[in-house]
């Protein structure tokens, strides 16, 4: 790495704000190009933290994300070896019957990876570049799109300032960098919270082994409720229960938890354990899910947003992290194309990437359909139609493959899928969600 | 007013943030109920200002707005007498031919009113209540949804604090009150800038008389461009030119202005005057237009958003001010219903009003259609179909009447109009925007 680090005489400074997944990966991309990289993170170093707070425990890594990791030489060794392949979804019916629906073509799979471990590996990888410095406990307070000057709050009330040639906002769905964008004219922005919340529950190993078949993404589709479970290396499963906040709030005692699971997820009770369920359901309140879209992603030649800061998506397509990682590749490709000239790279990045990120945000939301005929309830329609279509045509369709197993641009994948027609179908079919004869063909 | 002012022993304090149209009207509504009303405005008192900066010069006042003014006893005397009735649109073809299309039923009209005059009248009306105090040069910096404590910046760097039982955010499309909402979980928000900008030009009287027929809203529909003109009491017309920012930017010399008008609005050149056009086009840059939607409108029992702060709309339906004024009536009705108990009134206000404000925001935008077949240009489709349909059926339709001449809830008007069908039509017809055979039937 010495060579690339010394490529320039007057090294430009790139400040990456946020040391989460996309921030840490981006630091590697910029360091590899020889920039002076400074990463700023509000929280402490998660590699030293006793408790890692926050987001979901595991994630589905698929083709786009793996391709980005490969770009910085760390796909296989640290990541893939620690992920668990999921070759298919495993659908749990109310009666307890389990039916697999494979992903893509034979041999294709997605990987269940541990978020915290992936983040730690990425931070360590970034730190191996001598031209990268990680700064934790730095909370961005203010920055200038004109000068690149940033002000950070430090613990115990002190402040510090740094100037950069480029500020890369990778600070997540509630981005502090993005606040400055919101103050400017002609910046389009939306944040949409869905009426569902989510809650994570752990399913421990039984007799030292996985409590269910490990190489599957387990799904309990129940129309307005849904539970999924992803396998972890320690032979636990992380179960995620999705349901409307008002339903979460109806349950206030251990008995009510068991009653609820008896009704909707009876086969999961012995697997998770009734005592665990009674206790863990009340450990943390249900968490909100937000979809964020904005445009453009840049201001002048000084600042660009990437990852969740630019496009937080709901988790129903398993593409959030993959889209964020792909952002890094797309930016990198445009850097080559425009010879690292930020004044040309940044507008081109917005032009190229906005339609794709908007497409994946819409796709992720598209699985989740409001039905005015059913008291405006939201349904997870995709899984029903997935089951129906798989039964009918015997295999997964091409569209799903494009999104999950290729780098076909998201908006092109959507166009090929005759999006327009489907939207119209969706309008026409809204009354028939339960039976969903339509063309939804999506996917966790 | 003494009587109502003294209705309570322990008067609650209502802080209205923003002394624009909706803020000033709202102050009257709250004062009439006997609250201690404090109005806070960033700018100086426009009644004393030498130059009134900012927004459009005149506005179309219709039924909803007039009803709200009537509630505080000031419809006719100060406002209607100073407005100019517009009984019809007057369509200017490229050849200079003028054809009227009436509003609503015979005798129905909308009023062209002067924004600054209306605002001044409303401020003076608010001040006649002894329980109302207007505070200018107060810029809201921070406030607490828990305590109702607000901090204002004053001129020359000083600060002041005030506490209120209810904070009413009427501070417009770029609301400072709303910023606090954005920091809270489960607040849905979108701001969408359209690719068109607008520019105002003045058409002076000719020989002491209006240069065109006064009792019309004059419209020059040109697909992706549009100009409108509203009459003023001083016998001028305010012309507003709508066009994509990139088109505005193409014109950089006086000759280019004239060339452009020759091509698209030839009959307007002698009316505005070539010399005036050459000069005034460059007076101010084209202004942006934003559509803002959010939900909910309240936090707890302490704060509520109304007017543009809650729902800025694009101007193509002439309902922005009318919707904001109607907010005041709806809130007032709910205050009666729940006996002024803010903890019940505020959630009910959000529940009732959000769908209507979202409906009018969508309607206003619906006139403005992107066509991917024409290089993603945006077209003003409504006016073409308005002309076609009027020619075909010989009269205006019922839907338009409901929106402009009744208080039918916006979302109900939309439902009656078989919105869903039209959306599907719109999808199908998008390729045929030029000919727009479809069901668009809207209106300035």
Automatic annotation (TrEMBL), chains A, B:
It catalyses: L-kynurenine + NADPH + O2 + H(+) = 3-hydroxy-L-kynurenine + NADP(+) + H2O. It holds the Pfam family FAD_binding_3. Its EC number is 1.14.13.9. GO terms for cellular component: mitochondrial outer membrane. HAMAP family: Kynurenine_monooxygenase. The keyword Nucleotidyltransferase does not apply. Residues 14-328 form the FAD-binding domain. Belongs to the aromatic-ring hydroxylase family. KMO subfamily. This is Kynurenine 3-monooxygenase. The keyword NADP applies. Keywords: FAD, Flavoprotein, Membrane, Mitochondrion, Mitochondrion outer membrane, Monooxygenase, NADP, Oxidoreductase, Pyridine nucleotide biosynthesis, Transmembrane, Transmembrane helix.
């Amino acid at each position: 790495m010495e060579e690339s680090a010394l490529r320039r005489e007057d090294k430009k400074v790139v400040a990456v704000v946020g040391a989460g997944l996309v921030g840490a990966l981006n630091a590697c991309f910029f360091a590899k190009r020889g920039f002076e990289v400074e990463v700023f993170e509000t929280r402490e170093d998660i590699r030293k933290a006793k408790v890692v707070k926050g987001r979901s425990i595991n994630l589905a890594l698929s083709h786009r994300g793996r391709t980005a990791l490969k770009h910085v030489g760390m796909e296989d060794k640290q990541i893939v070896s620690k992920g668990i392949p999921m070759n298919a979804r495993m659908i749990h019916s109310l009666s307890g019957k389990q039916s697999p629906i494979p992903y893509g073509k034979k041999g294709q799979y997605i990987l269940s990876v541990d978020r915290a471990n992936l983040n730690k590996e990425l931070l360590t990888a970034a730190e191996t570049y001598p031209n990268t410095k990680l700064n934790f406990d730095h909370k961005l307070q203010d920055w200038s799109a004109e000068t690149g000057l940033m002000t950070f709050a430090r613990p115990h009330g002190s402040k510090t300032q740094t100037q950069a040639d480029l500020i890369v906002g990778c600070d997540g769905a509630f981005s502090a960098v993005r606040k400055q964008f919101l103050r400017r004219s002609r910046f389009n922005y939306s944040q949409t919270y869905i009426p569902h919340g989510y809650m994570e529950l752990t399913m421990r190993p039984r007799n030292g082994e996985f409590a269910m078949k490990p190489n599957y993404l387990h799904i309990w589709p129940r129309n307005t409720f849904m539970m999924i479970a992803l396998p972890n290396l320690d032979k636990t499963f992380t179960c995620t229960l999705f349901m409307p906040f008002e339903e979460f709030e109806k349950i206030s005692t251990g008995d009510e938890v068991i009653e609820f699971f008896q009704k909707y997820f009876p086969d999961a009770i012995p697997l998770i354990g009734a005592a665990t369920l009674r206790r863990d359901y009340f450990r943390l309140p249900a968490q909100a899910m937000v979809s964020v879209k904005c445009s453009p992603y840049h201001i002048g030649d000084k600042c660009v947003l990437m990852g969740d800061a630019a496009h937080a998506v709901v988790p129903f397509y398993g593409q959030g992290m993959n889209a964020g990682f792909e952002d890094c590749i797309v930016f990198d490709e445009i850097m080559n194309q425009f010879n690292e000239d930020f004044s040309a790279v940044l507008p081109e990045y917005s032009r190229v990437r906005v339609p794709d990120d908007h497409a994946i945000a819409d796709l992720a939301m598209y699985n989740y359909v409001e039905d005015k005929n059913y008291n405006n309830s939201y349904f997870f329609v995709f899984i029903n139609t997935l089951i129906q279509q798989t039964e009918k045509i015997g295999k997964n369709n091409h569209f799903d493959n494009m999104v999950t197993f290729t780098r076909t641009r998201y908006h092109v994948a959507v166009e090929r899928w005759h999006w327009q027609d489907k939207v119209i179908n969706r309008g026409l079919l809204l009354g028939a969600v339960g039976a969903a004869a339509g063309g939804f063909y999506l996917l966790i």
